[in-house]
Design a protein that fits this description.
Lysozyme-like, five-stranded mixed β-sheet, single chain, five-stranded antiparallel β-sheet, 17% strand, alpha/beta
């Protein structure tokens, strides 16, 4: 298994490990890390979509206004319903004005965090009716899969690749793509930097899209350990001590083990 933070610039990689292990940072330091993350994100976006597409279609337009006083107060987790970072970046860009959506962050399958909208400054459009109070974090994941005549589809109509069929997990007679340990680690570190950088954030407002809009949205699904992950964030426990850190893709059994471990160490 490769370094969980291999994608980070050297100057903040060790700080990410320290954060994952439960070491707190000062507000100004966390804000500095986010500023560095914004800068490194540009390189990641360019390498994903190409320099000409980037020049024409970034920064994203579906954002704003500025946060009002006392905001944001929460964080909403999402999945992208896509297979790769590239497709998500394209959908959020100016090349798809019909989408009219964005997110503050996208976390790739390898854990790399891409900032699209600065969470210290502006609203992103990721959760209808809740944007003005919440930071949005997307995770590259196909999400809920539909099975038809032996094949699996994401977004109801797009064929799920056969080389990834072994990843599929069943829960309550539904099929899902698992998240990766890299994404969990990145989420822990990012959220810890956010709660230090933005004192208005409250634990009870850390949620996912399904909890805010259950009639329309299913993300993040049963394979995302939402509550236990957020509890771990706010308890500042050592995230690397849990068994998920030695995995690649987190099956339902791994999520259940994480739940048991959180209860044991609470």
């Amino acid at each position: 298994m490769k370094d969980l933070f291999h994608w980070l610039p050297d100057r903040i990689r060790q700080s990410a490990w320290a954060t994952l292990s439960g070491k707190k940072v000062e507000k100004v330091t966390a804000q500095s890390f986010l500023a560095q993350l914004e800068k490194s994100s540009q390189d990641r976006i360019v390498s994903s979509v190409g320099p000409s597409f980037y020049k024409k279609n970034f920064p994203v337009a579906a954002k704003g206004p500025k946060w009002k006083d006392g905001k944001p107060i929460g964080v909403v987790d999402h999945y992208t319903a896509s297979l790769k970072l590239t497709g998500t970046l394209s959908w959020f860009s100016k090349a798809h004005p019909e989408a009219n959506v964005s997110s503050h962050f996208v976390i790739d399958r390898d854990g790399a965090i891409v900032m699209l909208v600065n969470p210290l400054e502006e609203v992103a459009w990721h959760a209808r009716g809740f944007n003005s109070e919440h930071i949005g974090i997307e995770h590259v994941n196909a999400g809920l899969l539909k099975k038809f005549e032996g094949n699996f589809f994401y977004l109801d109509r797009l064929l799920y690749p056969k080389e990834r069929l072994h990843l599929i997990q069943e829960s309550n007679k539904e099929y899902w793509e698992p998240y990766t340990s890299y994404q969990v680690a990145a989420s822990i570190v990012l959220k810890r930097w956010l709660i230090e950088a933005i004192p208005t954030l409250m634990r009870e407002r850390f949620t996912d899209h399904n909890h805010l809009d259950p009639d329309r949205k299913r993300d993040c699904g049963p394979l995302w350990p939402l509550d236990n992950l957020n509890n771990l964030v706010f308890l500042w426990q050592d995230g690397y001590r849990f068994s998920w850190a030695g995995k690649e893709d987190l099956a339902l059994a791994d999520v259940q083990t994480f739940t048991a471990e959180m209860y044991k160490h609470a």
